[in-house]
């Protein structure tokens, strides 16, 4: 059964890139880029990722298996417009996706056909419509929300995300682009409940896959503790 | 050898409690409390924690072993003033620490002796002095930074923290008190590097213990990726 999945490499303090690049100068030289490449280093070191990019070398390890699995299980992708624009040139004639990609955008544009089975279809009817288009194209495989982070958040908040895998990298960036900073639209006594479906750990990164159960009220429950916090309050 | 350690139960989006209680009305009825008890539920359900509180019942499981270990390895504690004040009444005559506790405060106060080996000594010379006092009292065991979160952050930023264990709970709170929100004083191209020392996972929580290596420059390193992000940019 097709699931809607997303994965993101994040720092221990929750950033998937450094502070947003203001557009002046080269993105690659920006703090956004420095943070992004730090938290994705485990993947850029992985053979399975490098093969998809047409690069040689890389490590054949647990991290590489995680990358390979994410490519294999994705029958179609949903992608944000900024990520699609940013990747269009560097991904070249044979982008790593090898599947249909549905780009959420406000600007109509003809479908872009690339080699290796990748196509970029531009969807102007919103996130839910893009997920539907991807679901129809994914066959028995999953719909992967490729990013960016704001699109992952939109899919989560819309209640469309079945599975979220975070690759938690042992670094603190202190500032940057956060999956959750934009707000989840939750009330003070509301939460989104998940459960860990798989945890894999390596020295470079801890991979935690969550099943998303959705919104639930945050009711007071001290389990008869007497109300005495013995861990942190501020 | 005595290490300076800290642990904190946090939501997947990094909050160890709900939004800060403004002091109006009962803390226990506040959103801060609701978030706090959600992320610490794994501990309040654990037999090892309940025993220390004088409560019956609880689960004897991996989570309970994590709690027991944290009590056993702590030879002395450092604590923030607000946490100490908040716990003074509910912890009662035999607080769960059973070790000397050094409270960082601006208000001089005589040492408070409690039963079971717990004492509260009020240190007005700052965080580093409190850590030194605790180190001298800890013997061969560790100095545990009990919280609150802002004290843990101060100890981390001061470069005094050897080990940080986060108990990552599968819930998104959307807002609240965050270990890192207060800022780490890092430049745009600086980071704090850590490495995972132990990962334990249960359905209720993922325990990740990190060795803290300290500050390091965040240098651009795409490992020859060609600069084409295939994971999230915003």
From TrEMBL, chains A, B:
The lineage of its organism: Bacteria, Bacillati, Actinomycetota, Actinomycetes, Micromonosporales. GO terms for molecular function: 5-amino-6-(5-phosphoribosylamino)uracil reductase activity. This is RibD C-terminal domain-containing protein. Signal peptide: none annotated. Gene3D superfamilies: Dihydrofolate Reductase, subunit A. Residues 4-184 form the Bacterial bifunctional deaminase-reductase C-terminal domain. It comes from the Bacteria. InterPro entries: DHFR-like_dom_sf, RibDG_C, Riboflavin_Biosynth_HTPR. One of its GO terms (biological process) is riboflavin biosynthetic process.
